[in-house]
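Example for tutorial group B:
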């Protein structure tokens, strides 16, 4: 492969980063630059692009929580927005055609519907990166946004599969055997460990058990990659595999974006239509706000969730590429959509970087909400008459909870992010609520009663405990705060952030173990 296919995208990504834009914008620009220089798409680049899309779908499946998708706030918003947004885009494009836009002169209803459908998606890659950079992927609006994105991705995969126009082989029914085989695949995931074997296992599952197997029975392989990922998702190591494949998937997706730019070179006409489409992302955002309001979510949740989704998607480009291969769209439209996607990333990056300021300005124009009428998942969180609160109800947190109740007679409330653990503990008689102490939404909604004298930080990660401490201080909490650390070098850091008492988990366990053994042996303290 000519080195220009590597150097130009790297320079393009570097320039985009320097402008504080997503590197994807630079990769698309690199494709156009290579096109202008006379380069064409190669077979190797095409293979890399296909691998990137397949691994993207597989990693989406790995993070798929079916229970999240079953929430009406997720599937209802995703479905309603797709239908209304597609219809709105078709209406606008039809109006432009009537007015006399040359680019739309030959567009029939099928072309307009495909364009509207492609423009209804928001970018999974972009939104996930924005949420992770801000540390709000666990916030309610972040979880809802990711759930909506996954639903949109499923819609796209269904379209991609159906667009082949061919009936699957009768052997396709044999794919149901993957469900009982899923525990075997998950068990093997435990044995491959981490590192290169985990990455290789993921690639084998995505490309062989997913893509190749589904293609063999006449079903689009991309859907197979997504389904195999979904079957692995319940395993605890699925998130680790997704992280391990992240860089490989991102690298291959560079090939996809470069190949889009190589399809054709932009003209003044395509730039004009793309700029017009860019303006329509604000109508798209307003529609999200309206649908969230129907589900009675807080203004903050609705606004920030909508702001994150205010962009066009790489999946829209995938749909457009497929439509182009079927002869439904011309290369001009592929170029137009790619420019619109790149511009939407640039605008969305600026908006989300200033989301707090934009939110505060917008809230001045919106009416107040009655907390009692809000959706139960988004109402203020009270601690009742609790005298102590334990953040993190794992083994350490549960031990602290038991000690405070049994030996000190306190009224204790536990908080944990794991909904299954919360249900189990409630069945055992614990007073526990599901909440994420690293979620800014949680702290904004939390109302600490004057009765709370003790807060125990037993979260599994040091950074999570630090976030919780900072939030407690913002609430002007002046009670006792005790925290658990796993490493000695974390003790000073956690004290600097406001912990009154710090317990070194392993050192404390070692001391207790030694004291127990010495006492059993009849030794006395010196």
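The residue assignment follows.
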């Amino acid at each position: 492969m000519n080195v220009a296919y590597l150097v130009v995208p790297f320079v393009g990504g570097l320039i985009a980063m320097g402008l504080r834009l997503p590197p994807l914008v630079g990769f698309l620009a690199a494709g156009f630059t290579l096109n202008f220089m006379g380069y064409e798409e190669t077979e190797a680049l095409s293979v890399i692009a296909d691998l990137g899309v397949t691994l993207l779908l597989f990693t989406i499946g790995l993070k798929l929580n079916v229970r999240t998708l079953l929430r009406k706030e997720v599937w209802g918003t995703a479905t309603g927005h797709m239908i209304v947004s597609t219809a709105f885009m078709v209406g606008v494009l039809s109006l432009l055609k009537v007015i006399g836009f040359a680019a739309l002169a030959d567009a029939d209803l099928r072309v307009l519907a495909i364009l509207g459908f492609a423009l209804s998606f928001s970018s999974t890659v972009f939104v996930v990166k924005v949420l992770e950079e801000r540390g709000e992927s666990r916030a309610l609006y972040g979880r809802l946004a990711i759930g909506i994105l996954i639903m949109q991705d499923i819609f796209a995969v269904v379209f991609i599969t159906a667009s082949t126009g061919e009936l699957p082989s009768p052997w396709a029914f044999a794919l149901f055997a993957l469900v009982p085989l899923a525990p075997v695949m998950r068990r093997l995931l435990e044995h491959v460990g981490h590192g290169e074997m985990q990455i290789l296992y993921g690639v084998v599952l995505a490309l062989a058990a997913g893509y190749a197997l589904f293609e063999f029975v006449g079903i689009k392989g991309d859907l197979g990659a997504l389904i195999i990922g979904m079957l692995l998702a319940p395993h605890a190591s699925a998130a680790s595999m997704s992280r391990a494949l992240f860089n490989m998937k991102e690298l291959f997706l560079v090939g996809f974006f470069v190949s889009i730019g190589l399809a054709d070179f932009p003209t003044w006409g395509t730039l004009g239509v793309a700029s017009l489409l860019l303006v329509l992302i604000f109508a798209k955002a307003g529609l999200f706000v309206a649908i969230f309001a129907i589900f009675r979510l807080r203004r903050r949740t609705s606004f920030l969730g909508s702001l994150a989704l205010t962009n066009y998607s790489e999946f829209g480009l995938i749909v457009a590429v497929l439509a182009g291969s079927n002869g439904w769209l011309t290369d001009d439209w592929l170029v137009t959509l790619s420019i619109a996607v790149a511009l939407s990333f640039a605008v969305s990056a600026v908006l989300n970087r200033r989301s707090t300021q934009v939110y505060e300005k917008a809230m001045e124009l919106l009416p107040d909400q009655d907390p009692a009428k809000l959706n139960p998942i988004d109402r203020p969180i009270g601690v009742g008459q609790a005298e102590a609160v334990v953040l993190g109800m794992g083994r350490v947190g549960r031990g602290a909870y038991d000690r405070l109740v049994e030996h000190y007679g306190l009224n204790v409330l536990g908080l944990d992010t794991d909904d299954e653990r919360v249900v189990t503990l409630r069945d055992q008689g614990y007073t526990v609520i599901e909440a994420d102490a690293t979620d800014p939404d949680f702290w904004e909604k939390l109302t600490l009663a004057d009765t709370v004298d003790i807060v125990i930080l037993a979260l599994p990660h040091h950074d999570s405990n630090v976030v919780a401490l900072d939030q407690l201080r913002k609430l002007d909490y002046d009670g006792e705060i005790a925290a658990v650390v796993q490493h000695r070098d974390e003790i000073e850091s956690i004290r600097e952030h406001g912990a009154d008492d710090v317990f070194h988990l392993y050192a404390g366990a070692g001391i207790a173990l030694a004291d127990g053994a010495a006492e059993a042996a009849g030794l006395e303290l010196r």
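The CA atoms of residues 309 and 423 lie 32 Å apart. Compare this with the pattern of hydrophobic and polar residues in the output above.
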